[in-house]
Amino acid sequence: MLSLIKEIQAIHKWRELLWQMVGREVKARYKQSILGYFWVILNPLAQMLVMSFAFSIIMRIPTYSSGHIPYSIFLFVALLPWTLFSNSLSSASASLVSAGGLITKIYFPRTILVISTIIAKIIDFLFANIVLIIYMIAYHMPININILWVIPIFFIQQIFTLGLSLFFAAANLLYRDVQYLLSMILLLWMYVTPIIYSADMIPAKYKIIFQLNPMAVITNAYRQVILSGGVPKYSSLIIATILSFVVLLFGLRYFKSREKIFADNI
Fold this sequence. Notes:
By secondary structure, the protein is mainly α. The protein has 12 helices and no strands.
């Protein structure tokens, strides 16, 4: 915990560099693109439309307790946070490798490279939410005060994402096979997380896997507060919070333990 506090203090000291890197990441991504930032909206929209057609019309996957809700919205509420998680983890894992020139030339907290990548993905996520908002307005989806639960749920998700990102960023710099392993993990992880199907469909004997999968708890919590207008299940959210902090502390410890040899592995 002490190392986490020290790292927060260091990042605060170098906060101007952090925001410069975020700005560079955001501007460079679609610099020579004709549609520019519209791709941030177009990509998840196209994915949602294809998946909605495949799973709601062809396979007819039910939404159970959320059965009165259009499947496209049911899917999108979980798909957007998952896409943010997946994209953040994939990009962050490559952040040290792509910034090799900076690492070998000047000193600054290396965690800034990972954090700036995640923040840039969060900006993408906020733009992509425009599609969800339009859909919810079009279908006259009711919203109540419980929607504010989205804030702590999102915060828990980012803690978990940062912890894994720190681990995979350091591991990928030392062992380049990690990026390929991560792609496979994320693909399998998506299907054991209730994104295209409802959490109600998980058999009782496998509920423990759901409880120990923070992303399953988080995506389900988003649906509970946005679609059902209720509150998340406190016990599951507490477990997800504890696991997220454990992952963050482990990821930071591993990252800092390898930091001295980053330059030797560029």
